[in-house]
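ok here's the first one, seq then struct tokens
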Amino acid sequence: MPEALAQIQPGRVTRSDVVALIGTPATSSLFGDDHWYYVSSHFQTIAFYAPEELDRQVIIIDFDKAGTVTAVRRLGLDNGKEIAMVPRETPAPGKELSLLEQLIGNVGKFNDSNKDKASGP
């Protein structure tokens, strides 16, 4: 792959050339198609321990509006940042009902006629 990356020269190579050289990207920009991302990682797992990431390479290829490469950037494991997840819940729209409101709201919703049909003759 390093030989193929060396052939991607800004101002000379197009999107179709990049696909022919190194394949389709792992992902692209959310809005538009201006940036392609190629990601590879190497992990090591020892016994029952959690896998450890030893190496990560991210290749970012930038394109102009005409589809020509404008830049090729490389990022490694040392460029990554640890992100802490926040264990919160997103509130659902609507009114939160109390237990009493839920019980009163269910009064009359159960129909005994369905019970008679289900029991059969």
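and now the second one, same deal
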Amino acid sequence: MEITFKNNKLEKTFNSDKKLQKAYGVLCARKIRTRLDDLHAADSLEDMKLLPGRCHELVGNKKGQFSLDVEQPYRLIFEIGHKDIKSKETGGLDWTSVIAVKIIGVENTHD
């Protein structure tokens, strides 16, 4: 999948192991890197359902965003990074049509 970032600062942080570790700590940075590698290797968001990280859609004021577990209680937050989003005939998002994501950040979604 294609990965973009909310802004240049976030992109620079996430693309530098040193900056990522400084911002989130060694363990959390390692897990963030793993999740980014998984996203990059996936053909579509559907592939993420089979990998560790509990990829899922968020609800409430986070509707339209997705979450991957990083280190409790933190999650990697992202949204769909393109406009051609399809729905299943039965309703809901067709995860196989999602081929690009935009990283929003890492946060505790339960605050």
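notes on #2: The chain has one domain: 2-108. The longest helix spans residues 26-41.
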